[in-house]
Amino acid sequence: MSDVDFYAARMDRAVRSAAQEGLAGLIIMPGPDLVWLCGYVPVVTERLTALVLSPGRRPQLLVPQLERPDAEKAPAAGSLAINGWVDGENPYAALAKLLEPQGRYGVSDNAWALHLLALQRTCPGLGWGALTEAMPMLRAVKDAQEIEALAAAGAAADATYEAITELPFAGRREHEVAADLARLLREHGHSQVDFTIVGSGPNGANPHHEAGERVIEDGDMVVLDFGGLKDGYGSDTTRTVHVGEPTAEERKVHDLVREAQQAAFEAVRPGVACQEIDRVARQVIRRAGYGEYFIHRTGHGIGVTTHEPPYMVEGEHLPLVPGMCFSIEPGIYLPGRFGVRIEDIVVCTDSGARRLNNTERELRIVR
Ligand code: ZN
Ligand code: ZN
Ligand code: ZN
Prior knowledge:
This protein is an alpha+beta fold. The chain has helices at residues 3-20, 32-38, 68-71, 91-96, 113-122, 131-134, 144-164, 174-187, 248-267, 274-287, and strands at residues 25-28, 50-53, 60-64, 81-85, 103-107, 126-130, 192-200, 221-230, 233-234, 237-243, 299-301, 308-312, 325-328, 331-334, 338-341, 344-349, 352-355, 364-366. It is built from 10 helices and 18 strands. The strands form 5 sheets. The protein has a 6-stranded mixed beta sheet with strand order 4-3-2-1-5-6. Strands 7, 8, 9, 10 and 18 form a 5-stranded mixed beta sheet that branches. β5 (103-107), α5 and β6 (126-130) form a beta-alpha-beta unit. α7 crosses α8 (174-187) and α9 runs antiparallel to α10. The longest helix has 21 residues, at 144-164. The chain is elongated. The chain binds zinc ion (3 copies). One zinc ion (ZN) binds at residues 236, 300, 327, 329, 343.
């Protein structure tokens, strides 16, 4: 299938599910939805760019006239009607001309408020909804090609882990190790690095700690959580390593997180609600008395971004479907002491979960 046909099929599928949801159409502004639907990655500025998908009509792409040459090079350009607006013209009036006078539109989640508020003023007769609320399944279920791209990104992250644990930790600052992680991800084919968390000792107890000035010491637990995009698809994996010999308690906490991660992995099958994956992981940790130290949801979807729906969290009733790709990443965070998190990306298949990260989950000793 050519690029044009490939993206045309995606846009067609999107507009058909929009119609099923009772939407008049979709308005997609720059970001992951635009990339996924038509392969176009414009520079994101205050100048309005929008793709309009409506049932029974050719996809319409509105772009600043000066960016038209870029838009014409988009992979899906052959199946798009490209409309330019020039500086001084009202771009929202130009966009309104591509919309129905009435009905409700699904708008991509990362449309800027600047644009959407102006559009709402221009089109008072229209209704609006967030795309992932109206159509949570649109990007959540990956096709075989997407799964292989995610597997390749996962393998590159795994190779990064193997390489980083060969290097010394003790005596180096967290941000030096983080810089090595970023370099290794790029060496293994990533074009974009989204995060390189190095949480050593007490810093590991803060799941949002990125990497700082702290010098890693012998005896530290170190949380390593890193990922980005390779060939347009995301990686995201976490392993917790120990510098030198761990204490019995450090081993116990690490074993517990590993057990929780495994239990959640084994709970994955089609039809199971997302919240069930969270419950299974949480129950293992709660039963061992560490429930209050597992302070975040168990997982999130991944695709053309490193964090997206579906979320493995209490209250998410969405059932798992073969092709959904998401993280399973339970953790235990002991304030002022250390943290442990273990994270793999998995894909739901007909017979259960398949891991896209395959480095060992046992506690690895580094120097
Ligand atoms: Zn220790
Ligand atoms: Zn992560
Ligand atoms: Zn994650």
